[in-house]
Amino acid sequence: MNDVNWSKKEKEAAREAFDKAYKREIESLVEEVRQKVANISEIDEVWQLHDFLSAKRHEIDGKYDYSYSALIFVFSQLLKEGWLTLDELQVLERDKLAKISALTRM
To answer: How many domains does one find in the chain?
Structure first.
């Protein structure tokens, strides 16, 4: 996918969609953490929360790669997970949308 070229308009739209998905996922994580914290009553639960957050940080840091060579894969993953919709990527060229759509079915 290194041969994929991005127009200026696509780059702007991609950044907007990328940021939107990231914000959605982070807001969801913060809410999940609030719920977990509200139910903590023992020290073991604190350590479990720590482990959960460490795993989530690793997952999110690895997922949100804004290099143009990776965006097709990133967007397909975000679509699979429900953080983006295909409608939010409609500004992209048809060939990119086709690749993203194909990857979401894998």
So the answer is: 1
